[in-house]
Design brief:
Distance between the termini: 48 Å
Structural class: alpha/beta
Largest sheet: 8 strands, mixed
Radius of gyration: 23 Å
C-alpha cells in the first residue's frame, strides 16, 4: 500500500522497527536490570527502588509463585494502583512465563468476577484495600493463590507508619476474610530462599490479557504476545527521539529520563509508555497512586525535574488550572503524550503556554498494545489530528463493506502492525468481527486521512448522534464548547427527540460559576451549525469518568435520556 505518511516522518524516525532484537519482554527487562542496576527505577511515597532491587524482588516473588504451583502460561491477576509492588509483580509474572491479567482496583464484585472467570486466572496479587471485593467472588473463580499487599510494603520503617494511617486513621481497608492468603513481604522472604527457574520464552508466547474498558459492552481480553508489546515499546521509543533531541534544547544524552506515571499502570497506555518503555531506556518512574488528588500529585513532583508526562485531556486540563502545579519546574519537560481521549485545542494551548511543552496527541487501543498513531514530537503546533502511523504500522480507512477509502473519505479506522493483538481471549467469533482477512484490526472509530497521511478521529460509531438525518459527532461539539473560557469540562450525547429522532444534549462543568445557559447557547450558536447545537444543556459539578480519566458518555446516556 502507499504509505504516504512516511515522507512526513520527523528526521531520524525509522520507517520500521525490529522486535527481533529481543526474544521476549523478559530479555528486555533483564537487560535493563543489568545495564542500570544502580539507578533508581521507581519512586513511590518518596521511597526509591533501584533496578537492582527490582531485579532481586521480582526474582524472589517469581520463585514463590513457582513454588505455589504457578506454571508457564498460567494467568496471574494484578489488582492494585501505582505502588512500588506493581512493577515487582509485573516483572515476576513475566519472568516465570505466566500471563499478566491487569485488573482495575476499583472494579465492582460483578466486574471482578467476570474478568477472573473469563481469564481463568489461578492467582492474584491484590492490595488489601480491595480484598473485600475479592472475598465476595473468589469462590466462583479458579483463583487458588492470593497474595495480599499493603500500602506500606517495600517502604521500610516508613511502611509501618503508612499502614497504620491507611488502616486505622483513614480506615481505607474494609474488614475481609481470605483464608490461606499470603502476605506480600512474607512471599518475598520465602522466595529469597527458593530456587527460581527461568523458562525459555518466545515472541508468540502470551504476555498480557488486557481487558477492554467495557464502555461499549462486556469486557473482552485482548491477547497480547511478547512480540506485540515489545514492538510497541520500540515504536514508542523511536517516535519520541525528535523531542529528546530537539533543536535549541539542552542535550539529555547523559541525563536519566524521568517520567511522571500518573496514569494507572494496569491501563495499557501507562503499562507500555511508563513501565516498559521506562525500563528499556533506564528511566525513573514517579508513581502517582491517585492522580485525582492534585495537591498530593504536585507534592510528589516538586523535588523532581521530569522529562515525560503521559496523560489524558482531563488531567492536563485540571493541572493547567491548579495553582500549585503552575509553580513547578517545567524546564526539562520534553514529551507530553496525550491519549485515551481527544486532546482539545483549549487544553493543548493552556498546557503549552504553562509548560512550554506541547501535548503530542496519539491514538491507540488495548488491542494495539496500545499506540498506533501519533503526532510528531518535534513540533509545537496543535494539529487536531491523531497524527501518523508509527513505524512498522499501516492504517487505512474502510467503508461498511471493508473496501479501502481514499484521502478525505470518512470511514472506519483499521490498523495493521506487529503491535496488533492476536485476538480476543477465547472469543474467536468476536475476533473474527474485528479482524479483516488481510490482518487489519477494525477499531470501531470513524476517521479520515488527509493528503499528508495524518488521521483525524471523527468519533466512535455508536456515539454518533443522528439529528434529522444529519450526523453529529460529539467530539466536534465538545471541542467547540471547551473553547469557552468559562467551561472546565463537557460531554455531548444523543437523546431521543420526537421531531428530529435525536437531539444533542450537553453536560457542562463550569470553570467560572458566573457562566449561564444563555451565554453558552450564544457561544454555541456562533460556532456550531444549527443541527449541531445542543438542544438541552445540563450543568454538573463533575462528569463520570473511568479511572484513567476518560469521560464515560455511556453513563451520561443512561441518565440523560429524559431531558
Amino acid at each position: 500500500m502507499n504509505r504516504n505518511w512516511l515522507k512526513n516522518y520527523p528526521m531520524g524516525v525509522p520507517s520500521e522497527i525490529d522486535p527481533g532484537q529481543y526474544d521476549s519482554l523478559v530479555q528486555l527487562l533483564e537487560e535493563a536490570f543489568a545495564r542500570f542496576r544502580d539507578r533508581p527505577a521507581y519512586i513511590g511515597f518518596g521511597k526509591p527502588m533501584s533496578y537492582g532491587e527490582l531485579d532481586d524482588r521480582s526474582r524472589e516473588l517469581g520463585a514463590f509463585l513457582q513454588a505455589q504451583g504457578v506454571e508457564t502460561g498460567d494467568r496471574v491477576a494484578i489488582m492494585m494502583p501505582n505502588v512500588l509492588q506493581f512493577p515487582v509483580v509485573l516483572a515476576a509474572i513475566l519472568r516465570i512465563g505466566a500471563v499478566v491479567v491487569n485488573v482495575n482496583p476499583l472494579y465492582t464484585a460483578r466486574e471482578l468476577e467476570h474478568q477472573l472467570k473469563d481469564s481463568g486466572a489461578r492467582a492474584i496479587v491484590i492490595l488489601e484495600n480491595f480484598a473485600v471485593t475479592l472475598q465476595q467472588v473468589i469462590a466462583r473463580t479458579d483463583i487458588k493463590q492470593v497474595i495480599l499487599a499493603s500500602m506500606g510494603d517495600l517502604l521500610g520503617f516508613k511502611g509501618t507508619i503508612v499502614n497504620f494511617v491507611v488502616r486505622r486513621i483513614k480506615k481505607l481497608v474494609p474488614d475481609f476474610s481470605l483464608p490461606g492468603a499470603h502476605r506480600f513481604n512474607d512471599a518475598l522472604n520465602q522466595g529469597s530462599s527458593l530456587s527460581f527457574t527461568s523458562p525459555a520464552l518466545h515472541h508468540a508466547d502470551v504476555a498480557f490479557l488486557q481487558y477492554t474498558g467495557g464502555t461499549t459492552g462486556l469486557s473482552k481480553g485482548a491477547t497480547l504476545t511478547h512480540r506485540n508489546v515489545l514492538s510497541n515499546v520500540l515504536q514508542s521509543e523511536a517516535w519520541m527521539q525528535p523531542a529528546l533531541h530537539k533543536a535549541g534544547k539542552p542535550s539529555l544524552d547523559n541525563e536519566q529520563l524521568t517520567t511522571v506515571c500518573a496514569l494507572p499502570l494496569y491501563h495499557i497506555f501507562a503499562l507500555t509508555v511508563c513501565a516498559l518503555l521506562g525500563m528499556r531506556v533506564g528511566a525513573l518512574n514517579i508513581l502517582i497512586p491517585n492522580p485525582r488528588d492534585l495537591d498530593a500529585l504536585v507534592k510528589e513532583l516538586k523535588p523532581h525535574r521530569f522529562h515525560m508526562f503521559p496523560a489524558v485531556n482531563t488531567l492536563y486540563n485540571a493541572l493547567a488550572a491548579h495553582e500549585g502545579f503552575k509553580q513547578l519546574d517545567f524546564s526539562s519537560l520534553r514529551v507530553s503524550n496525550g491519549g485515551g481521549m481527544a486532546v482539545q485545542r483549549a487544553t493543548a494551548e493552556r498546557w503549552l503556554e504553562l509548560t512550554g511543552c506541547p501535548i503530542c496527541e496519539g491514538y491507540g487501543l488495548s488491542e494495539t498494545s496500545p499506540s498506533a498513531t501519533c503526532n510528531p514530537t518535534d513540533t509545537d503546533a496543535y494539529s487536531g489530528t491523531i497524527g501518523m502511523p508509527l513505524p512498522s504500522t499501516e492504517v487505512v480507512i474502510l467503508d461498511d463493506d471493508g473496501r479501502k477509502l481514499g484521502v478525505g473519505e470518512r470511514g472506519e479506522i483499521a490498523i495493521r502492525g506487529p503491535q496488533v493483538m492476536v485476538g480476543y481471549w477465547n472469543k474467536p467469533h468476536e475476533t473474527a468481527k474485528v479482524m479483516t482477512p488481510d490482518g487489519f484490526f477494525k477499531s470501531g472509530d470513524i476517521g479520515i486521512m488527509d493528503e499528508r497521511g495524518y488521521f483525524t478521529i471523527v468519533d466512535r460509531k455508536k456515539d454518533m448522534i443522528l439529528v434529522s438525518g444529519f450526523n453529529v459527532y460529539p467530539n466536534e461539539v465538545e471541542s467547540v464548547v471547551s473553547m469557552h473560557p468559562s467551561v472546565l469540562e463537557c460531554a455531548a450525547i444523543g437523546v431521543p427527540d420526537g421531531a428530529a429522532g435525536e437531539a444533542v444534549k450537553l453536560f457542562v462543568v463550569k470553570r467560572d460559576e458566573a457562566l449561564t445557559e444563555v451565554a453558552l447557547r450564544e457561544f454555541c450558536a456562533e460556532n456550531l451549525t444549527g443541527y449541531k447545537k445542543p438542544k438541552f444543556i445540563e450543568f454538573r459539578s463533575e462528569l463520570p469518568k473511568t479511572n484513567v480519566g476518560k469521560i464515560l458518555r455511556r453513563a451520561l446516556r443512561d441518565t440523560g435520556k429524559a431531558a
